[in-house]
Amino acid sequence: MVNSVQGTNSTAAAASSAKTAASAASTQDRFLQLLVTQMKNQDPLNPMDNAQVTSQMAQLSTVTGIDKLNSTVQSLSDSMAAAQTLSATSMIGHGVLVPGTTLGLNKGQAIAGLNLGQGADTVKVLIKDGANNIVRTLQMGAQKPGVIPLAWDGLNDAGKAVPDGSYKISAEAVTSGKSSAATTLSFGTVDAVTPGAAGAKLNVGKLGEFVLSDIKQVL
Fold first, then answer.
1. 99-186: what fold?
2. What is the pLDDT of residue 96?
3. Which of 5, 159, 182, 214 sits CB 3.0–4.6 Å from 171 for a disulfide?
4. Domain assignments of the chain as residue spans, ordered by start
5. Which helix (H) or strand (E) holds 136?
6. What is the number of other CB atoms lying within 10 angstroms of the CB of residue 98?
């Protein structure tokens, strides 16, 4: 898998570099052809002066320099994307917390999390079934800002075990009597990594694809 990702990114980077170099050469050729044509067709009685020729050659040098700079920046970007993808492959098989409202109960165990933008005096987590009925209410008390992992034992508010399956979670955070942001996080396992122009994407099973910045915690 890792070798395949490396090969794919190396090929893409080489193709991009070759395309940029060809574009720069084509621009330079067109500029030179235009300058030569202009000199061939100039008025013999009023030829171009040295200052004009020097100015146009300076423009050519500037255009060529910009193309080379663009090529260098593109190569650097491709290298960073390849390094990011290679680094992301180390997460395959690991459990992660990503933004989501799904909670999977398996054999009486479920893992999820919260992401608090600021500290809260009280935090309450609601677990609901497919019919949107509240199954369990978790009182988590005061919490500091950041990512907070949480576990559910599969028991409802009456202390009875509920069937395995998919449930939904929501959170309510209160600070100084006012509600504050509390983003719920779903748990999943990274199955694969897909390289792309916008960076590596991680396939987290049924939860979908996520970029690295979406990964709030690796468990």
1. Immunoglobulin-like (2.60.40)
2. 96
3. 182
4. 2-91, 99-186
5. strand 134-143
6. 21
pTM beyond 0.90, yes or no: no
In the prediction, which pLDDT does 179 show?
87
Query: Which residues lie across from 207 on neighbouring strands?
Result: none
Give ∠ CA 99-130-122 in degrees, rounded to 5: 50
Residue with tokens 């800002």: 145
Q: Give the phi and the psi of residue 100 in degrees, each rounded to 5.
A: 175, 170
Query: What is the distance between the alpha carbons of residues 29 and 143, in angstroms, rounded to a whole number?
Result: 65
Distance, in Å, from the CA atom of 169 to the CA atom of 149, rounded to the nearest integer, reads 13
CB hemisphere CA count around 64 (13 angstroms): 13
Residue 152 Cα distances to 82, 102, 104, angstroms: 38, 13, 10
Radius of gyration of the CA atoms of the chain, in A: 29
Distance CA 164, CA 151 (A): 14
pLDDT for 181: 74
Among 77, 67, 89, residue whose Cα is nearest residue 13: 77
Report which residue type is found at 216. K
Residue 1 has pLDDT above 60, yes or no: no
Give the pLDDT band of residue 99 (cuts 50, 70, 90).
very high
Kindly tell me the number of DSSP H helices and DSSP E strands found in the chain: 2, 13
DSSP secondary structure letter of residue 100: -
Give the residue carrying structure tokens 């600070």.
175
DSSP string, 149-193: EEEE-SB-TTS-B--SEEEEEEEEEEETTEEE-EEEEEEEE--EE
